[in-house]
TrEMBL record:
Source organism (scientific name): Streptomyces brasiliensis
Gene name of the encoded protein: paaG
Domain of life: Bacteria
Lineage start: Bacteria, Bacillati, Actinomycetota, Actinomycetes, Kitasatosporales
Pfam families recorded: ECH_1
An example Gene Ontology molecular-function term: catalytic activity
Protein's UniProt name: Enoyl-CoA hydratase
Length: 258
C-alpha cells in the first residue's frame, strides 16, 4: 500500500492512504502506517499529522479477504496486532493527529478516527462499526472517542451507519458540508496548531492523554480476546464468509467492499 507523505514548510505532515479500490488495510499496510506514525516522535520538524484517504473514501476496514486467505489464525492475529499498533500509535503520537474523513469510514477506519485527536468529516459521511458482521468484538475503546455509550452499543450491535452530522452533534467530529471541504478544513486546523509553540503542543497532548486515561493497548487486547475465541470456535470464519459473499453487506453499497 502506498503511503504518500508530504511535509509542508510549517511542519504539517500529510499521510495519504492509497489502497484501491476502497482503502481496505491488510496486515502489511497496518505495519507500514504504524511505523510512519511512530517515527514522528523523533521528528522535531513535524508539528501536526493529517491522515486521510485517497479515492472513494477514508478507510474501508481491514482486508477481510486476506484474513480468510491466510492459513490458520494468521490473518486474524495479524489484523489484531496491526490495528492495535496503529491505533495506539495514533493515540500516543507526540503531535496532534487530525483524521480527514470523507464519504465512508468502516470498521478499522472508525477505530483509526476514534484514536485520532481531531476528526473532520463531511456531514453525510457514514461511520460503520462492522465488527459484529465480521465475527469480531473489538473496537469499543477506540470508538468511544466518537460517540456516547448507548449510541456506541447500538452502532456496534446493529452495524448500522452513523452519519458525520450526528457525530458533530456530540462534539466529536468537525462536520463540513461536503467531502471536498474535508481536506481544506483539516489543513486549516493543522495550520492553526502548527503555528503554536511545538514543545507546548506536544506537552499539551501528553497532558490530555493522561487526564483522559484511555489505555487503548490493553483494553483493545482484552476486547479482541473474544474475537480470537470466536475464531477458534469457527463462528468468526463463518461470519466473514457470509460478509465476503455479500449476504450481509447492505452498507457496502456505499463503496465499502474490500
Amino acid at each position: 500500500m502506498p503511503i504518500h507523505q508530504k511535509l509542508s514548510a510549517d511542519g504539517v505532515l500529510e499521510l495519504v492512504i492509497d489502497a484501491p479500490p476502497v482503502n481496505a488495510l491488510g496486515i502489511e499496510d497496518l505495519a507500514k502506517l504504524a511505523a510512519v506514525v511512530e517515527s514522528v516522535d523523533d521528528r522535531p520538524d513535524v508539528r501536526v499529522v493529517i491522515l486521510r484517504g485517497e479515492g472513494r473514501g477514508f478507510i474501508g476496514g481491514g482486508d477481510v479477504k486476506e484474513v480468510q486467505r491466510l492459513p490458520g489464525f494468521e490473518g486474524i492475529l495479524g489484523q489484531v496486532t496491526g490495528s492495535t499498533a496503529l491505533t495506539v500509535g495514533l493515540h500516543d503520537c507526540a503531535v496532534p493527529v487530525i483524521a480527514a474523513v470523507h464519504r465512508y469510514c468502516i470498521g478499522l477506519g472508525v477505530l483509526v478516527a476514534g484514536a485520532s485527536d481531531i476528526v473532520v468529516a463531511d456531514e453525510a459521511c457514514t461511520f460503520v462499526l462492522a465488527e459484529v458482521d465480521n465475527g469480531a468484538t473489538g473496537g469499543a475503546v477506540q470508538a468511544m472517542g466518537l460517540m456516547p455509550d448507548k449510541r456506541l452499543r447500538q452502532a456496534m450491535l446493529t452495524c448500522e451507519p452513523v452519519l458525520g452530522r450526528e457525530l458533530a452533534s456530540y462534539g466529536t467530529v468537525v462536520a463540513v458540508p461536503d467531502e471536498g471541504s474535508v481536506p481544506k478544513e483539516a489543513r486549516r486546523l493543522a495550520g492553526v496548531i502548527a503555528a503554536k509553540r511545538p514543545s507546548v503542543v506536544r506537552a499539551a497532548k501528553k497532558a490530555i492523554n493522561g487526564s483522559a486515561r484511555r489505555d487503548i493497548g490493553p483494553l483493545y487486547r482484552q476486547e479482541t480476546a473474544l474475537t480470537l475465541e470466536l475464531n477458534m470456535r469457527g463462528d468468526a470464519t463463518e461470519a466473514r464468509e457470509t460478509f465476503v459473499s455479500g449476504e450481509r453487506r447492505g452498507y457496502l453499497s456505499r463503496d465499502t467492499s474490500s
